[in-house]
Automatic annotation (TrEMBL):
GO terms for biological process: pentose catabolic process. GO terms for molecular function: aldehyde-lyase activity; metal ion binding. Residues 14-193 form the Class II aldolase/adducin N-terminal domain. SUPFAM superfamilies: AraD/HMP-PK domain-like. Keywords: Lyase, Metal-binding. One of its GO terms (cellular component) is cytosol. Transmembrane segments: none annotated. The keyword Lyase applies. It comes from Pseudomonas kairouanensis. The keyword Lyase applies. The lineage of its organism: Bacteria, Pseudomonadati, Pseudomonadota, Gammaproteobacteria, Pseudomonadales. This is Class II aldolase/adducin N-terminal domain-containing protein.
């Protein structure tokens, strides 16, 4: 069956609208709702992307990975950030959706120069107890290399904190899965921040992630 760009965009924009409502409901967006979401077009070197903020929120554009050809409403800002989305797709061929926001607590960790370590139980579903959501090196706005370096250093990481900027998260499934992951990461960042006010956030014991995945009966 040939690719139907109209139908693909319709599905993407429907999921995008649901994703934005989830982000608003869980207070994961910044005050100006800055951010963007993309979805890889199956079997092609192209993606569809839309902004979470502004008058063009939810208005999508299809972009080639070489960023030389596009269909739809591709603003300068979307073209700029698409460079980083493409870098993630190239580095993680299995990834299908990428989300970027300025979520307050994850962005605070990025500005403070701190990775998000696995202290909160929400992270045991996506990380082992000795892993972290990595912090990238600083780079110019949306420079891809710092994120690529972090992905290579942390091959199992489902997200990265762009230094002094904010989070990028991705999913092998779809837009809504990437969005739910980001919501869980933001909650983990919030709880870790609160715990730091009471003392030092405590690590999980060795093997906690595996035991958590097996369930309460694991010994």
């Amino acid at each position: 069956m040939s690719f139907d760009p109209v139908r693909f965009i319709q599905v993407f924009e429907h999921d995008f609208a649901q994703a934005k409502q989830l982000l608003i409901k869980h207070q994961v967006l910044s005050a100006n709702e800055a951010g963007n979401i993309s979805l890889r077009i199956p079997g092609e070197q192209r993606l569809v992307i839309a902004s979470l903020s502004g008058a063009d929120s939810g208005v999508s554009a299809i972009v080639d990975f070489d960023l030389q050809h596009s269909q739809g409403s591709l603003t300068d800002n979307l073209k700029e950030v698409a460079v980083l989305h493409v870098a993630i797709y190239r580095e993680r061929p299995q990834v299908n959706a990428v989300i970027h926001t300025h979520s307050p607590y994850l962005t605070a960790f990025a500005i403070a120069g701190r990775p998000l370590r696995a202290h909160a139980s929400q992270l045991l579903g996506v990380l082992d107890e000795d892993q972290e959501i990595p912090l990238t090196a600083w780079g110019p706005r949306y420079a891809p290399q710092p994120v690529v370096d972090a992905l290579r250093e942390h091959p199992r990481a489902p997200a990265a904190l762009l230094a002094n900027h904010g989070p990028f998260a991705w999913s092998e499934r779809d837009v809504l899965a990437a969005t739910r992951l980001l919501i869980n990461l933001e909650e983990a960042a919030y709880l870790t921040f609160l715990a730091a006010q009471l003392g030092t956030p405590q690590p999980f014991p060795q093997g906690a992630a595996q035991r958590s995945r097996l369930g309460w009966s694991a010994t």
